[in-house]
């Protein structure tokens, strides 16, 4: 299947050929010329029809290529904005995790101090009576 541009080029070549043949022979019958021109007109109408179909495919408001490109661009912009929001959430989560680690460290130190005090009191009670 030839593309529309190729068919247009072919049509131009054939029309040029016909002009050359007409000038060379000079005695073409009107019926032959009309037949050739009607054939070429039919080819041209097919090319025009195909171009219309391509235009419809490209500019269809529901599923056309232009709409798909616009949707893709819209999605990419939306994802870029969401990525900024995700980075912000991750940063907040990292801060929260660091705060929890600091709190855990403080609680662990307090528990070790309490444990050491309890062990000291128990040892004092056991060995303090002797």
Layout of helices and strands, plus pairs?
Layout: H1 4-25, H2 30-59, H3 65-128
Describe what is shown at a glance.
The protein has 130 residues and is mainly α. 89% of the residues lie in helices and 0% in strands.
Multimeric organization: single chain
Uncertain regions spanning at least 5 consecutive residues: none
Query: What does the overall shape look like?
Result: rod-shaped
How many strands? Answer: 0
The largest pleated sheet is described as: none
Instruction: Give the CA-CA distance, first to last residue.
Output: 110 Å
Counting helices, strands and paired strands, the structural category is mainly alpha
Q: How would you sum up this structure, described in words?
A:
By secondary structure, this protein is mostly helical. It folds into two domains: 1-59; 65-130. Helix content is 89%, strand content 0%. It contains three helices and no strands. The chain has helices at residues 4-25, 30-59, 65-128. Helix 1 packs antiparallel against helix 2. It is rod-shaped. It starts with a helix and ends with a helix. 0% of the residues are buried. The mean pLDDT is 82.
